Each structure stands twice: as C-alpha cells, then as structure tokens.
Amino acid sequence: MTFTTPLVLRGPLRKPAQMLQEQEYGGHASVHDDATAEKLGLRGAPIEGPTHFSLYPPLMERIWGKDWFERGCISAHYQNMVVEGEETQAFVEWPEPGAMTTKAWVVKGDGTPVHEASASIGPGETLLEKRLKELRPPGKLVIMQDLKVGMKIEEDKPIRMDPDQNMGALYPFSLSEKLAKITENSPWYSDPKSSPWGRAIIPLEMISVLAQYSSRTSGKESAFPTRGPALGLFVDQQIRVIDSPLFVSEDYLVSREIVALSESKRVENCWVRTKLFDRTGKRPVAEMLLNQGSFKESYKGYNEERARLEAAS
C-alpha cells in the first residue's frame, strides 16, 4: 500500500423535516416548539438529533454491508442545532482493513458541524463511552436533585412499533408518517419481502423513539423524577444494535438505568442507558445511551434554589 491517506465516504445533501412541533412532556410544550425555543433565545425550534442518524445507513451498508444492520452503532456528540429548511450531509471515514470503528460526522450545507460521532460494528469503545469516563462530578443539582446514579426503571409490559401506531406525546407521529419524510428511506423499513430478514426493520433513528416509549398503564412512574417544569434537549446519543435489527410489530421489553449525572454552564445532564430485550426479557437486542440536558434558565428560581441547596450542604 503506497498511501495512508484517510478516505472519506460522503452522502448527499438532505433537508430533514421537523416532526416534533406538537411534542409534550411534563404537561408542557418542548424546545421543539417555535415559541418555546424563542423564549430560550434559540433561533428556531431544533430538529431532534437522532433524525440525522438516518443519513448514515447508506454509507454504513457500503462499508460493512448487511452486518451493520445487525451489529452497528452510531455514537454522537451533538454540536449545533438544525432547523427545518437547512441542509445536512453525512461523512464517514473509510476504516482501515479489519478495523471495527471509524470516525463519522454530519455538517450543514454551509459546513457548520451538526455532530461528531464514531461509527462501529460489534463491541468496542465508542465516542460516548470515552466521554463518560472523562466526566467530572457535578455541583449541587437542582432540576435533577432527586436523581441518583444506579436508579432503574423496568417497564412492566412489552412495547412495540406498528406501522400506523402513534408513538405518544413525546413522539406524536407514526412510523408510516416518519417514512414519508425520512431523509434516507429503504424498502427494508416497510416491505417485508424486500428485507433480508423477511420482516420490515425499524430505522436507526426510530430506535430512539421506541426506546423512550412507555407502555405503563399501572400508574407507576415511567420516567425518572426530575423537577420542573424545565425544558430539555439531547446532548449526546448512542444507538447500538446487538445481534439483529429491530423489527416492526415485534414486542420488546425495556429497562433504563441512570449511569451518570453531570452539568455544564447552562445545562444539567442525566445520562441514561436504555436496554431493549426480546419478548422473553433474556436476549438483549439493542441499547441506547442518552445524555439529556435540562436548561437551567428554564427552571423558575433556579439560582435561588441552587444557593439554598449549597448553603444547606
């Protein structure tokens, strides 16, 4: 081999769609609502981060083939928000022969970074696993003062994603509606006959939706007890498929665990690892690591409450 120059695979420019205008959590509108985003000084309602994950499958299939849909992982640190009308484009560095991980990133049409990521197949340290190791302990948290590392939630009923199923207040749309606007579509997402597995598979970005969907009907809490109202956003996100794609209209069991708490100048952060299992609850099929931040300024009386907690400690 004469050269060691890194080669990069590039996808086309795409315009992602905003589908969370009607999103609600905690009984109030989210940061994906234009008016709410404006109150925070944002220039528009951001398109949800995992929307950009759909740019990767055409590139990853070229590199690792069908195996990537069974054992692939995207691990991303979000850098700049995207609003509807802006173009985005994915890049993946072609891995060295035998390598199981490589660099990936998404930029806007003007070159502004959207996120940095690692793309990989099989086990191994990812971008976010490395970031987790480097976290510093937070100061006195206010919005997340009731949270502890190690807290767990076990869903008591299976969850699933049918083609025309509305995915709830957090994701007020169906898979069919998403596929009508997804940046990179595939017949594998809707046509079982075209799929190598004989079943329609759930797109990578929609695994995020499934992982956050709750089937609880027993009155128990299905979310960790953060204080509010406060507005949040995704800061880091990793989606890993373990040994099979996730299938449309298949039952899965879910567990969630807080693995870290952190903070930045504007945001308190909760890192949650969500594991999805087959219907027996014994075989893991996918997992998501999500760092969700809450804007300190969106919580009424934040500075006063933090001063009180610090004085009491």
Can you describe what's shown?
This protein is of the alpha+beta class and 313 residues long. The protein has one domain: Thiol Ester Dehydrase, Chain A. 16% of the residues lie in helices and 27% in strands. The chain has helices spanning 34-39, 57-64, 67-71, 127-133, 175-179, 204-211, 302-312; strands at residues 8-10, 24-25, 28-29, 72-78, 88-93, 101-108, 113-121, 152-154, 232-241, 253-263, 267-277, 284-295. The strands form 2 sheets. It has a 10-stranded antiparallel beta sheet with strand order 1-5-6-7-4-9-12-11-10-8, with helices on both faces. Strand 2 and strand 3 form a beta hairpin. The protein is globular, with a radius of gyration of 19 Å. Mean pLDDT is 90; it is low at 216-221.
Q: What keywords describe this structure?
A:
Thiol Ester Dehydrase, Chain A; 7 helices; alpha+beta; 27% strand; globular; ten-stranded antiparallel beta sheet; 313 residues
Strand and helix map with partners:
Blueprint lengths: L7 E3 L13 E2 L2 E2 L4 H6 L17 H8 L2 H5 E7 L9 E6 L7 E8 L4 E9 L5 H7 L18 E3 L20 H5 L24 H8 L20 E10 L11 E11 L3 E11 L6 E12 L6 H11 L1
Antiparallel strand pairs: 1-5, 2-3, 4-7, 4-9, 5-6, 6-7, 8-10, 9-12, 10-11, 11-12
Unreliable spans? 216-221
Query: Any idea of the CATH topology?
Result: Thiol Ester Dehydrase, Chain A
Quaternary organisation of the protein chains: single chain
Order of strands side by side in the largest beta sheet? 1-5-6-7-4-9-12-11-10-8
Gross CATH architecture:
Roll
- Average pLDDT rating: 90
Computed Rg: 19 Å
Strand-and-helix sequence, N→C? EEEHHHEEEEHEHHEEEEH
Q: Per the principal axes of the C-alpha atoms, what is the gross shape?
A: globular
N/C terminus separation: 62 Å
Tell me the total number of β-strands: 12
Q: How many helices in DSSP terms?
A: 7
CATH H-level name... which superfamily?
Hotdog Thioesterase
The biggest sheet, with number of strands, parallel, antiparallel or mixed sense and barrel status, is: 10 strands, antiparallel
Binned, the helix content reads 10-25%
* Class from helix and strand fractions: alpha+beta
Number of domains: 1
